[in-house]
Each structure stands twice: as structure tokens, then as C-alpha cells.
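Lab meeting minutes (informal)
Scribe: AK
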Amino acid sequence: MTKIEKFKGLAIKALSLIVTCYILYTAVFGKFTAIIQRGVFITLIMMLGFLMTKHKKETPVFVHVLDVLLSLLSLACGYYLVSQYNYFATHVGIINPRDTIMGGIFILLLMECCRRIIPSSSCC
């Protein structure tokens, strides 16, 4: 087992604990605004999705590194969504190129995460 695989295992355990605590916190003490709550949740689940992708034994190390990078890119998009909440709330309908780029990256990451999680045999 390589160092990156050990890191992925530790990250999966930590993220799973964070997701559990986040869900329990929002269930007990109330919820955040919808954009923040959904953004944090989908970000954490996407990070887990990228890290938990199964690979064959002979998979090169750079594939595992790519999983970690995609997970970190998901975190960056989620952070952008949460950190720019006030801007989104006060500038509804104003198109910003940075928002369009980050939204496009987030959509592409979500599509890739779904492609990895849903097995191809479940399609028609």
C-alpha cells in the first residue's frame, strides 16, 4: 500500500466523520440557509465519491493522485460557494464570469463523480 493510498484511507475516515457530525448538527440545532447547507453537503459527498473510487491493483499512482486532486478541487468549489454567499444573496441575476467558471467546474466535477459512482452496468 502506497503513501497516497494510506492518505486516501485516512481522508475517507475523516470525511465520513465530518459528514456524520454535519448531518447530526443540522438535525439537532437547525439548518443553515439552503445554499450553504446544500453546498456543504454536496461538496463533502463529492469529495468522498472521488476518494472512494475503486481501482484495480495495478493502477498507477498518478490515478490515486488525480482522485485526491479532484477531491480538493471539489473542496475549492464548495468553499467558493459558501464564501460568496453574501454576494449571491445581494446580487441576484447579475452574471459574473468567475461565478460562471466556478459553476461550470462544479457541474463537470459532479458529472464525473456520478460517472464514477454509478456503475455502467446499471444503465439500460
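Next up, CB showed the second protein from the same session:
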Amino acid sequence: MGCLSAQQNLSALVPMPNYIETQEGKAFVVTEKTQIVITDASLQFEAEELQRVFKAQMGLKLNIQTGGVKGKHIYLKAEGQNESLEHYQLQVQPKRIEISAESSKGVFYGIQTLAQLLLGDAENTAHNRIAPVVLEDSPRFAFRGFMLDVARHFLPVSDVKRFIDLMVRYKYNVLQLHLTDDQGWRIEIKKYPLLTKVGSKGNYHDPSAPAAFYTQEDIKDIVAYAAARHIMIVPEFDMPGHATAACRAYPELSGGGEGRWKDFTFHPCKEETFRFISDVQECSGFQPGKVPHCRGPVIQLPDGPGPAPCSALRVTAYDAEFCRVLRQGSSPHPVA
């Protein structure tokens, strides 16, 4: 069984790499003496990820060494300085495995590909073997995202982390957290305590469900957990529509509405509405400079004449003002 083909271990590769060259020859045999060798401490987390892969799939805990080690080992190399580059190369040879990239991010994705090779080639993996192969890959799309609707269906932090772990397997790099909607406000804003005390009660199936939300520490924990795995968290704050939960907590922000759409929309002509939006952005716990998602072109305002500025309001102008406030963090002039 020393002479193997890598053909059988490609079935679990998702997405399929750009270049694959299967090779004939002896397999790389993993033993307790096999080490994970990194160029420097910047790849420590990636090495620990690979360590976890081998423990889970082969039952072996491999030691991690930094530089200066030669022999039949697994080598991780980040050879550039640009962390935005995601290209990597994976080479499995009889006496050496090497994952090289321009960045730790590329190395991390190469590790996920190696994990998929082990999963797809169950027979060789069961005998601690990895068939020879050469792979190269880089993503077609810079943003590869998923969205979790925790506003309607709240999930505890542990479940969000589990979802992030599943994203990692397939090299997704953006997680959009839908944090606010009619059914609930799911993030603590200490300046507005009623958002969680009142606005976080209920969910899509049960309007009377107990309050459920993420504290500031929860958000920091999720963001850090994702960032270590090269995933950016994009917070979604629904506005100007889909604001029922916020307006339930602070009725003075409501723009009215009728029937099932009562309090559906933030009031577009009050200075405190835009102050609230700026405060939420500043106090949300997400790092400055990251991308907030402003959703909600659907609005519902009362029929009939209202204040003069509101009666002339156009939906597009309304959305533009909300987005401007998010970008600049400043109060707008009254819309006319």
C-alpha cells in the first residue's frame, strides 16, 4: 500500500481549488514524531488549527515548532506582508508537507483544504497516510458571506461560534449578523437600556418570549473569535423601516404607521432619531472603520398630511439621509 494515488481524496474539496495535480508515489505518513513547523509566531494560531485537524481526524497531537527544524514534517510558511492576499499552495510529498502563502490568511485556507483531503480519503486517513498531491488556489470573490438572522431567531454565542466554524471549512470570510428587526433588538447599547429591557423581548414565533440579546462583551467575543479565523463580522441595523422593536422601547422615535405596521418606521423629521442612530453606531462595540449594513428601504408612514417636511419626503431621500448619518456619524439637516 506504499504506492498511492491522490485521485480518491478529492471528493470533499469544496470549493474546488483552481489547480490540482495528483501524483503517483509513496504517501506521507503522519506519526507522533511529525511536527508542525512555522516560520515565526505570527502563524501560531494557524498551527494550532492544523493541530486540531490532526487530533480530530487521526487522533494524533502534533507538536508545534518555530523555525530551524528539518526532517519529515509539516511546514507552514507565510512569505509576504500583505494580509489581504489569500492565495496558497499545498504540496504533499512522501517526506514533506508544505503550505505556503503570502499571508497567514492564505495559510489558514490551505489548512482547510488539507482537512478536506483527509476527510475525503477516509481509508488513507484511517492509516495516518496522506496521498501525494499539489494544489494551488485563490478565491474568485473577495467577499464570501453568510447571514444569520438573530433578530428573528436569536442564537446564543456558542451557536454563533459553531456557525463560524462551519463557515471556515468552506473558506467564507464575511458573517452578517442581522441584529435588529421588528421581532427583537439583539445588541446591548448601554446609552439606551430599554432597547434590551423592552425591545429584545419576543421572537418570530412568540412575541412574548423572554428578552434575548448580546452584551457588549458577547459582541467583542464574537468579533475576536471570527477575526482569528479571518472572518469579518458585518452588523446589520435595520432602518428606516423594520424598526418596531426599537420604537417599542423608545416610542418617541416612531414615525407612526397603521395596523400591523404601527411603529414600523423611525420618525424621519426628528433630530433625536438621527442622534439615536449615531449613538447606536458609536456604542455598538464594533470596531470603527468596519462596514455596517444599513437595510430597510421599505417604510410605512401614516397616510394623510403630516408635518410639512414629512409630506414632501421621498423614500430615496430618507434612506440617503440615514446612510449619510451612518457614514459620517453626524446629525442631518431637516429633510424638505
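CB comment: Residues 1-7, 305-309, 311-318, 329-336 have pLDDT under 50 and may be disordered.
No objections, moving on.
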